[in-house]
Specification:
alpha+beta; 4-stranded antiparallel β-sheet; 20 strands
Length: 412
């Protein structure tokens, strides 16, 4: 059973029961269409109702409008077609308002856990709960914004000219009607910078909204965990918390996802497995989301074929149980690197060898673009990935070794 954003393309028939499909609301609605919040300055607001929008719920958009439909709205998927349907989300004050989509999913999950516990059945259950935030638009209840006063915000540490020794921009450069297209993440950064008297002010405003959304997500996750802790299944329930990607908040003059650098590829991967894990333990071995399914098979002692039909492939990935049991010295059958890829665009024709790849082990990150350009970072000495060592002949053999790991894992 599930609810919320669990897969990018939702297929309801794969679930026995599914409550709420993904809803990126609350979004600002001017009475006719969803727009960026009017309090966001131009030109950043021109990025639209998803990327170019951030505000506390208490800042009700278009509150003085004569159109009664204006304000906050949910974005609901229609039964046919693709264009989301808008539904008014009522807001009077923090104590008199509709729940956000993430809050709805948290309440549903907590209620479902209580109902399942009351049945006292021996059968196990799988419960998936998908939260949108901190995905943009960065909208959350005011109390979470209040947790992060602007004068206390520390913007991400940046280095001048940090892109000079990188190759991402040239590798991802695209043209439309003969004109070069500005890469999205760098465009977002530039427009934020142009929207405020200083870059620091813009980054602080955007970071405050991001942190508020993280705090709101934490609270909703806490509601689900509280329900588990109060249930008879507390000591018999595995909890795994992951995300789908990271996010740049200005590092390398970039605001977005879809790079092969640390900020974009690193995610939370947190496991609570009663009788296996110890609270607060940290494993330094890089692992991947592809290792999640094999880990659950191992922890739950599941049997059977994972292929749905004859066209299916063998399951990839490896169980991370050795690191759950022994975070510092666990050994496993998996690779010593985590593999990441970003799509190189339509011209790549979906060919594996034409995409951009990276591998990360405990110390090194190696990036190989489809142009053949390389980046190499030493995380022991350079955790911010400020210095690309790929052109240093001292690391020629290391680069060959790291590229061979990409070849072995991808079949390139």
């Amino acid at each position: 059973i599930g609810s919320g954003k669990l897969m990018h393309h939702h297929v309801r028939k794969t679930w026995q029961d599914f409550k709420h499909e993904a809803d990126y609301g609350p979004m600002a609605f001017d009475g006719e269409k969803r727009v960026a919040h009017p309090s966001v300055p131009l030109p950043f607001r021109n990025l639209g109702n998803v990327i170019g929008s951030f505000a506390p719920l208490s800042d009700v958009p278009f509150i003085e409008s004569d159109n009664s439909d204006a304000g906050w709205v949910y974005t609901l998927k229609p039964k046919t077609g693709w264009k989301p349907i808008t539904k008014k989300m009522n807001y009077v004050n923090e104590n008199n308002r509709d729940l956000t989509p993430d809050e709805q999913n948290a309440h549903w999950a907590a209620d479902t856990i209580r109902q399942l516990s009351a049945k006292k059945e021996d059968k196990p259950f799988f419960l998936g709960v998908g939260f949108i935030r901190p995905h943009t638009p960065l909208v959350a209840p005011k109390k979470y914004f209040d947790m992060f006063p602007l004068d206390s915000i520390k913007v991400p540490v940046r280095q001048a000219n940090d892109n000079n020794d990188t190759h991402f921009i040239e590798a991802q450069s695209q043209k439309k009607k003969g004109k070069k297209i500005e890469q999205k993440g760098h465009k977002h950064f530039r427009m934020l910078k142009e929207s405020y008297p200083s870059l620091d002010e813009g980054l602080k405003k955007f970071t405050q909204a991001y942190l508020a959304c993280v705090a709101a997500a934490d609270a909703n996750i806490g509601r689900v965990l509280d329900a588990i802790d109060k249930s008879p299944e507390k000591n018999n329930t595995i909890v795994i918390f992951v995300s789908d990607h990271g996010w740049h908040m200005g590092e390398k003059n970039y605001i977005a996802k879809n790079t092969l650098w640390e900020e974009s590829t690193r995610i939370p991967f947190i496991v609570r497995a009663p009788g296996v894990t110890k609270a607060g333990a940290v494993a330094e071995q890089p692992v991947s989301l592809i290792d999640l399914f094999p880990t659950l098979i191992d922890l739950c002692d599941l049997k059977g074929d994972t292929k749905k039909n004859a066209k299916g492939a063998e399951l990839g990935g490896f169980s991370v149980r050795p690191f759950l049991e022994n975070p510092e010295n666990g050994t496993w059958d998996g690779p010593d690197v985590a593999l990441s890829m970003i799509y190189a665009g339509a011209d790549s024709n979906n060919e594996i060898k034409k995409q951009h790849w990276a591998v990360r082990n405990e110390r090194w990150r190696y990036i190989r673009y489809n142009t053949g350009k390389e980046e190499l970072y030493d995380h022991h000495k350079d955790p911010n990935e400020w210095t690309n060592l790929a052109d240093n002949p001292e690391y020629t053999e290391l680069k060959k070794e790291m590229y061979s790991k990409i070849q072995n894992l991808t079949g390139i």
